[in-house]
Amino acid sequence: MAMATSDRIRALVTDNEIVVFMKGVPAAPQCGFSAGVVKVLDAIGRPYVGVNVLDDPFLREGIKEYSDWPTLPQVYVRGEFIGGCDIVRDMYAAGELQALLAGQSA
Amino acid sequence: MPMDATEIERRITAAFPDADVLMVDMAGDGDHWAARVTCAAFAGKSRIVQHKMVYAAIGADMGHELHALALQTFVPAVPPTTPAT
């Protein structure tokens, strides 16, 4: 019996501190927005997990329902959806993302 | 077909009459817009919630029509209800 997509997503974002659902993989993003998020996360230098939704149509649609957010990429920190490319870039520019990631994981 | 910037601005202002909306043509092609929205209603809300408020106001299928809209939301430095000192 396969896990429901929402349960898979919950497990991914709970088991890993930083997760990005993206088009492509961190080493080879397939979309400019995904590339932008990877650039920010790489600059911060904390380990993160990239999930390639192009490999999985269930995840590609399921993640949008999970977050009630219609676009990719989507970045999760400690289980919480924090935003896509624009928000992550703005948070990085304001120092908010660094502050969030500097906190100890629960 | 992307939504016209004037229409985007009109819808945001209709939903948030006190909002300050600035539309910037990012590429000079009339297709890639950045909207900078400053509104007291954003105070105390996460950026995701602020953005969802704006997208709801626009009421478009942002996954398609608005994928090229870069959005920035701001809380006014001095809320309109607070007299400047």
UniProtKB/TrEMBL annotation, chain B:
Q: InterPro entries this protein is in? A: BolA, BolA-like_sf, BolA/IbaG_stress_morph_reg
Cleaved signal peptide residues: none
Q: Which family does it belong to?
A: Belongs to the BolA/IbaG family.
What is this protein's record name? Answer: BolA family transcriptional regulator
Q: From which organism does this entry originate? A: Novosphingobium decolorationis
Q: Name one Pfam family in it.
A: BolA
Source species taxonomy: Bacteria, Pseudomonadati, Pseudomonadota, Alphaproteobacteria, Sphingomonadales
